[in-house]
Amino acid sequence: MRPKLPTNIMKVNKIMTVKIVLSLVLLVGFTSCSKKSDSKGGSKATGWKINDKKGGFQYASKFKKQATGPGLVMVEGGTFTMGKVQDDVMHDWNNSPNQQHVMSFYMDETEVTNVMYMEYLDWLKRIFPPDQENYKNIYEGASPDTLVWRNRLGYNETMTNNYLRHPAYAEYPVVGVNWIQATEFSKWRTDRVNEKTLEDQKYLKKDGKVSDVSADKVFSTEAYLASPSTSMGGDEKLVLKRGQGRGAAPKATTSADGKTNEAKNVYAQRSSGLILPEYRLPTEAEWEYAAAADVGQREYNIYKGQKKYPWSGSYTRSGKRQVKGDQLANFKQGKGDYGGIAGWSDDGADITNKVKAYPPNDFGLYDMAGNVAEWVADVYRPIVDDEANDFNYYRGNVYTKNKIGDDGKVELITAETQQFDTLPNGKIISRNFPGQIGQVPVDEQETYLRQNFDKSDNRNYRDGDKQSTKYFKFGGSEEGDEKGKMKDNQRMYDSPKHNVSTDSLGNMVRKYDKSNKRSTLVNDDVRVYKGGSWRDRAYWLDPAQRRYFPQDIATDFIGFRCAMSRVGPKSDHKKTARNKR
């Protein structure tokens, strides 16, 4: 039998127990209040309530991560050796090994196919009817050149007539598209993807993109962000004032005195987290990094040597037991041999082949070698200037800004102000579409006293501009002589200068540059293309190979795929050491 404790000790124990309980209650209360306060989104800067229904600062605090756009695959960025490590049999040494780093980005799983491009053409034809005078050159300017298949001594009329539109070639990569057309397709794709996203989130009228769209009511991402109320022709039935889905703006509220407080920030914005970055052509560094996919042979924090091809090994045939001997890409086997012997283990294609016909690389990307070569964004120069930059390397920046009208608002392109460019080969291509914001070059307002850039056009920076030519004189005139222009014999890249114009009757006048003093084909309008194609030998399958072609000319062996920058963290996964996995 336990001894009975004195009364005074029992009282002390009760008091202590009560104090402990009260302390726990207060602690839990403060913790819950803190969590409750945090859950309400109190500002760490001011303590004010964020996303208050009464107004104030609205923010997409529930945003998780960037959505993956249609057709894209995530490519985690990192460092890699850009350039050739194999024998340079061409002896041009235009891609010496150099260390580069690219940020994480997204890239199309496959090359853009005929059916994808046909959707673009169909949209243009419906919105901008070619039979109308204002729009007659839009559809024609975007159409691929099907005559690229013709050859002086070959019968290829089947491809000329059928390759683009016949359903048998629907999933084959589109060709006959020049660099400019590929860039315009990327811009169109950006707007269509963002248009669908805003429609799904009820910022745009449901099915308005099909039932109500017209040439004067076209959705443009940048025009919507700059001035939602005037975008899509200012039609309030199409551009809704209040979203009701994820990331939606707050509803209007009614105060105690009966007054209606209209909700603020009722249109989708960058801060909503719904608008995807633009689809675009990948930079050369991005393309080479993604094609090589060295991540597949990583050993701790190093790579086990650079690959010769987008797959491991030095051979073009598979070594796996189940498919041993099968070709890993579509390329030219040898002279007069584009696919192999009939009925044998060949590459399965005479010309191009259906996308995903060959295994993907370690990033999950298909046809990064063979099938068709691909346009990238960069202007070609014989060197990659890693001394100037080793992060997200890209040559081709031409900075612009929104055109502001006399009323102080952004100026939207109309059918009357739309502009067309006549290319050196005579093809007419639309520079912009109605509904988009007009663009003008940046000027001293943006460049004054900046250290990172000092002019709008930077394509020839440190490789052909006045600072990099041997004729440059410090303190001299702006471009080399007293008239402000550099002499032709002093230019680093003295390429032919063809000119196309029209006479008073509207007839096209082609003026070819017949000078025999030109020293190069390189200029600011030639673009890099990467990877081998169905017309190329295995040598060109190396991701480090780089060639160039005029941006306004198409071929039967160059296609393209799109990329998209990633916003936010480099990766969605926590990294651990290899031995801890």
Molecular structure report:
It is a single chain. The protein is of the alpha+beta class and 581 residues long. Helix content is 18%, strand content 12%. The protein is built from nine helices and 19 strands. The chain has a four-stranded mixed sheet. The protein has a three-stranded antiparallel sheet with strand order 1-4-19, with no helix packed on it. It is globular. The protein starts with 6 loop residues before the first helix and ends in a 16-residue tail after the last strand. About 4% of the residues have low confidence.
Total beta strand runs: 19
Structural class: alpha+beta
Task: Summarize model confidence as the mean pLDDT.
Answer: 85
Outline the low-pLDDT stretches. 30-39, 243-250, 477-484
Q: How much helix, percentage-wise, in residues?
A: 10-25%
Biggest sheet features? 4 strands, mixed
The helix/strand order is HEEEEHHHHHHEEHEEEEEEEHEEEEEE
Proportion of residues in extended strands? 5-15%
The backbone outline, from C-alpha atoms, is: globular
How is the largest sheet built, in terms of strand order? 17-16-9-18
How many DSSP H or I helices? 9
| Cα end-to-end separation | 58 Å
Radius of gyration: 30 Å
Short characterization:
With 581 residues, the protein is α+β, with helices and mostly antiparallel strands. The protein has helices at 7-39, 114-127, 136-142, 157-162, 179-200, 208-211, 221-226, 284-292, 444-447, and strands at residues 72-75, 78-82, 98-102, 105-108, 253-254, 260-261, 298-299, 302-303, 373-379, 400-402, 420-422, 428-430, 439-441, 499-502, 508-511, 526-530, 546-550, 558-559, 563-565.
